[in-house]
Amino acid sequence: MSDAMLSHEPRTVVVGVDGSHAALNAVRWAAAEAVDRGLPLRIVHAMASGADPDGVTDAVLLEAQDIARIGAESVRPQPVRVIGRPGDVLLRESGRAAMVCIGAKPRRAADEPVIGHTVAALARGSACPVAVIRSRPDGTAHTDGVISVVLSDEAGNDDVVHLAMHEGRLRGRTVRQIDRRADSWVRRYPDVHVEIVAAGSGHHYGCQTRGHDDVALAVVGAADADALPTLTMPNGHPILGYPNCSLLLVRH
After folding, report:
1. Coil, strand or helix: which one is 237?
2. Three-state DSSP class for 17?
3. pTM of the model
4. Which residue range or ranges hold the UspA domain (predicted)?
5. 16, 122, 10: which is closest to 64 by C-alpha?
6. Which of 111, 165, 197, 246 is in the most buried spot, having the most CB atoms within 10 Å?
7. Is 162 exposed, middle or buried (0-12, 13-18, 19+ CB in 10 A)?
8. What is the rounded CA–CA span in Å between residue 23 and residue 179?
9. Distance between CA atoms of 60 and 45, rounded to whole angstroms?
10. CATH number of 12-134: 3.40.50.2300, 3.40.50.300, 3.10.50.40, 3.40.50.620?
């Protein structure tokens, strides 16, 4: 791709796997990302030690490869086993990746943490965008709705919005832009209903959601990523349903 943010020539798209259904949902997401970027898909299984007498790691990696190929036939999988804690391993991997993808189980109780230790580590320190693919209670990936992003005055917001628009194109989804800029025309005239229209394209963004009005993916910047590990529910985030949907964290 020609866009500067998406063409800094990283080596791979990385996905962490552990044999769970949530991880396989992340593999499907990551496979499409890797093919779109023309990069190999690095499938990483973190292990406490190098020993694998029962072949568990081999089975986990083989299943992930099969899932990746079903989702994207031209994907180039690179299965690897790495010794270390998952958070530490994926943080190291982020230094040479275009994106790190990881699965997240559904929250089953109101007092349950919004994210686990591995996602918290990546939210704080990843060197590349992080896709957190949330699974629903029925096992399906929470990715079939609009992609929502906040327009703000924060540094780096253009990168956040850029990636949201890229994902909208790749996934064939509507992108909902929530304008929180201090001096935006929308905030000056809060009583006026506004539809965002790309001039000359004939397309309206934020009006039609192809039958799905819930948020499939929230694309957020560094400030939200920093706050995520200590976030409690409910919260006043402008993206409805955040962070129980899938997340794309953009630190840079």
Report:
1. coil
2. coil
3. 0.80
4. 11-134
5. 16
6. 246
7. middle
8. 33
9. 8
10. 3.40.50.620
Round to whole Å and give the CA distance between 235 and 119: 19
The ranges assigned to domains in the chain are 12-134, 146-243
DSSP state of 8: S
Kindly tell me the number of DSSP H helices and DSSP E strands found in the chain.
7, 11
Q: What is the DSSP letter of 9?
A: -
- The β-bridge partners of 47 are 83
- Residue 115 token pair: 């994210």
Please provide residue 68's backbone torsions phi and psi, each rounded to the nearest 5 degrees. -60, -45
In whole angstroms, how far apart are CA 14 and each of 136, 157, 189?
22, 24, 43
Residue with tokens 């990936």: 141
Helix axes 117-125, 86-94, angle to 10 degrees: 30
The answer to whether 89 and 82 are in contact (CB under 8 A) is yes
Model confidence at 23, pLDDT cuts 50, 70, 90, reads very high
Closest CA to 77 of 17, 122, 166: 17
